[in-house]
Amino acid sequence: MSTQDFARRPSISRRGLLAGTAATAAALATGAATTGTAHAAPRTFASTPDGFASVNALGQNGTTGGAGAPVVTVSDADTFLDYCDRNEPYTIQVQGTINITSKQALRSNKTVVGLGANATIAGGGLDMYRRQNVIIRNLRFVGAEDDAISVQQDSHHIWIDHCYFADGLDGAIDIVRAADYITVSWNHFDGFDKSILIGHSDGNASQDTGKLRVTFHHNYFDGSRQRHPRVRFAEPVHVYNNYFRNNALYGVASTENAGVLVEANYFENVPHPVYSGYDESGPGRVVERDNVYAGSGTPQTLGTVVEPRTYYAYTPDNPSTLPSTVPAGVGTGKI
């Protein structure tokens, strides 16, 4: 697959975007913004992933999860974990609250989807170790004593969509140890501390370089403190059309020569929206373009990054619409 680099482009100022009423009207007309306007049609959400989870690679034709497989509905932990640990494909529908501990195995070729707005995984999380073709949607993850979702050790083609994360003791999502081709979309990270980590340590360059390709779009980082995401070695990581609000430590950090594109996001009251390098980790390459910075600091940038369009097509929404459209569309009960 060929690659193409691009240079840094200037960001769009908040004043300039908010003055662009014609652009906003056009976005509303196409359904890019769906709240606060009586004439706007409700936004419909895709039933299949876009971004890196949609790419045909590693012998996998996109990410389909348990499509075409038996559908089961579970409402207790023992039954839920039994189906998660089976080798056969399934669509596992979660009803009510499932109380588990630690990180529990989720095998390949599964769709795990909540029913309604309140399906919850409480106390523990899901772990994918050398797995592929998994979809996790419409679930609340609360009070996890470890990571809520862990994607690791060469796992690939994972789609995490329309979930809610709160009150975890470690990370909401970890993507580490050469995991690849992942999309994280339309999720609500509510007050989380360590939201998302890509690349687990500074000493893992040989395993992670050339892997860890992840798309983040239309996520709501709502009072969460850091790691939105924090990235090591991966390229490209594509962070676009997310709404960052009141993130006390920082927004995005590219470290250890990672390549991150931060594009068409809305940063509100974020003192350090983008870092190159963080803590003891060396600098990463990071390009920002077309972002809005409202009450926020100046982003750090460095070098060039592989263009995500060499892998997949996408059309960003007007970032000025994100404070309305993202909170209205994220989390459970929307699909």
TrEMBL record:
It is found in: Secreted. Its main location: secreted. Residues 67-273 form the Pectate lyase domain. GO terms for molecular function: lyase activity. Pfam families: Pectate_lyase_4. Coiled coil: none annotated. Residues 1-40 form the signal peptide. Belongs to the polysaccharide lyase 1 family. PANTHER family: PECTATE LYASE 18-RELATED, PECTATE LYASE 21-RELATED. This is Pectate lyase. It comes from Streptomyces millisiae. The lineage of its organism: Bacteria, Bacillati, Actinomycetota, Actinomycetes, Kitasatosporales.
